[in-house]
Amino acid sequence: METVTNATSPVDTKPVKLAPPSRWADRIFEWFTLAMALVVVALIFVVGWQMARGSHLAITRFGFHFLTTSTWDPVAEQYGALPFIYGTAVSSLIALIIAVPLSVATAVFLTELAPLWIRQPLVSLIEMLAAIPSVILGLWGIFAMIPWLRAYPFPILKRLFGWTPLFSGPIYGVSMLAGGIIIAIMILPIITSVSREILRSVPNLQREAAYALGGTRWEVTRIAVLSYAKNGLFGAAILGLGRALGETMAVTMVIGNTPQIKASLFAPGYTLASVIANEFTEATTDLYLQALFEIGLVLFAITILANLLARLLLRGMGGISTTRAVQ
Amino acid sequence: MNIARFLGGSCSLILLGGTIGTASGQMTINGAGATFPYPIYSKRFDEYAKVDPSVRFNYQSIGSGGGQKQILAQTVDFGASDGPMSDDNLGKAPGKILHIPTVAGADVVAYNLPGNPAVKLDADTIAGIFLGNVKKWNDAKIRALNPGVSLPDQEIVVVHRSDGSGTTYIWTDYLSKVSVEWKQKVGTNTSVNWPTGIGGKGNEGVAGQIKQTPGALGYVELIYAIQNKMPYADVKNSAGAFVKATIESVTAAMATAQIPDDFRFSMTNAAGQDSYPIAGSTWLLVYEQQKGAAKGKKLVEFLKWALTKGEAMAKELSYAPLPDALRDRVLKRVDEIKVQ
């Protein structure tokens, strides 16, 4: 290093005079951006710390039982978060199972197969789906989706798979499954757009090489494109999961809001985000409010854990395009 | 306490925004709380601006829990709540808080049956349905109350509110009074641990759920059932008469209810032939000792106006006004508010 600077400095004497101000600007720019980046990090810590502080009464009162018990009784002041944790996990899982294949297939169609003139209109339409306010989607869920689900798909599912615990029991319409479907609709656009970007970043050389080997369109897509982009697509799914965990309004309107753990997906459920939205405004006692704060803390922790786990998984898969995907 | 400060902080920011907007020389009186009476309150604030242009009201309908927290933290000039404050919460107040009842509303038992026949229910049956003991529409209890009505062999899908609400407070207060089993197992609150049923968010969520689900039964505010043209049951009151929920039958219930001097009363299951049994009042919360003389004086003037001239607006919006005897008692209490 030293030799390099020594060697260069005598050569360009004039630029050295001009250098200090520009170096300052660089430094200020660097500090500024660093500070902004730190603000984001600090924000996460402040949120976590505030929520932990806001729920200390509930934490000390219930301890670990908060996570493992199922009674949520504001009258007796007994609070257990297990049904909500279960509901959040299951509804998000259903959403991912529905949304990921749909989104990836859409993205493949848009980047690999669709005629050029149709791509942009389709992309705009999908992005428009993301612009629908959550509460509107929820109302649509109550008045259009649920009656339809109750009339056709649910009875068919029950007839075909009624022998499994997953699709047994009475059909009310509002259910864990309906909640999962609404979340799936809400996370479709984000997974689709990210997947599309990732597929577009697959070098054309890959495709050309596969074609040169005599691959069919399906083989080219499968071997050259999808397997090349799989880490990125995984990242897209994780972004979707992050959204799914926190979706509140529309889910609250169709999931049935019953804190219970039932194997049947036709049974109503409840999520962490929903119980906060439902009960926060009317929580009059300290412990009640603190228990809701702790629910928030649990949701916060689950979201962070899901992200960390995804990163570990990606590292395990030896990802290259990971940083791009999980931005 | 931390949370109260946090809520207080965020609210005072909102309120600050409100103050900046006002013309100079105008006084802003800030309030926050219950959502149920929000339509009538905002109408009264609007009308009052014509009576006294020098004051402007800023009311945030953040929920009864928030209203109680705000008045305790003294970040607002008045709070509003659909349930009376507990002794526990009142004990935390830096001064004496008065409950001023303003209007009352009713919960109706709405349902969805083929052909929507008129159905009559009594306390025992309603409690049975919500406890999960009465499961079918053609249960012997329901049939006995409704001779001649064809009731299907269909499961009753119970729908309740999922969000904490004054409506639920009234509902569970009624059930606790009429059913020992309910009182022991569930109790009274703005949200409870429901033994059965599915939860809908807000009156619109419950109404939507009932309308969409064949065999559903649930409770919504009277106004909501009227607006949505939903059928609702006549309920047997404590005098043994079947009563339809109307503004008059709610006011009648308030007239016979036992009301203590601090006005923290419950009017469910009230006595009297004409009283509708599932109803409740909503309150404004003010300190007996007002801090600012000018503001306190204006607030008292408004309260008096709201209880007299402003009362006429209640019926237009399907709220039940206070009966005369109670109104006079409340006015007397308002006079005792100290402004210095």
Mean pLDDT of chain A: 88
* Oligomerization state: heterodimer
Count of beta strands of chain A: 2
Helical residue percent of chain A? Answer: over 70%
Number of helices of chain B: 14
Number of strands of chain B: 14
SSE class of chain B = alpha/beta
Order of helices and strands of chain A: HHHHEEHHHHHHHHHHH
Which structural class is indicated by helix and strand composition of chain A? mainly alpha
Largest interface: A-B, 40 and 43 residues
Shape call of chain B: elongated
Largest sheet features of chain B: 9 strands, mixed
C-alpha-based Rg of chain B, rounded: 21 Å
Spans of chain B of 5+ residues with little confidence (pLDDT < 50)?
1-23
Low-confidence parts of chain A lasting 5 or more residues at pLDDT below 50? 1-9, 320-327
Summarize the structure in words:
The complex is a heterodimer of chains A (327) and B (340). Chain A has 327 residues and is mostly helical. Chain A contains 15 helices and two strands. In chain A, a hairpin with a 4-residue loop joins strand 1 (72-73) and strand 2. Chain A is globular. Chain B is 42% helix and 20% strand. Chain B has helices spanning 2-21, 38-51, 64-73, 87-91, 123-131, 140-145, 166-178, 180-185, 202-212, 222-227, 247-256, 293-307, 312-316, 324-335, and strands at 27-33, 55-60, 78-81, 97-111, 120-121, 157-161, 198-200, 216-221, 234-236, 242-243, 279-287, 289-290, 320-321, 338-339. Chain A binds chain B through residues 50, 53-54, 71-76, 139, 142-143, 146-147, 170, 172-174, 252-253, 256-259, 268, 270, 274, 277-286, 289-290, 293, and chain B through 1-3, 6, 35, 62-66, 68-69, 83, 85-86, 88-89, 155, 157, 162-166, 186-194, 197-201, 205, 208-209, 212-213.
Question: In a few lines, what is going on in this structure?
Answer:
The complex is a heterodimer of chains A (327) and B (340). Chain A has 327 residues and is mostly helical. Chain A is built from 15 helices and two strands.
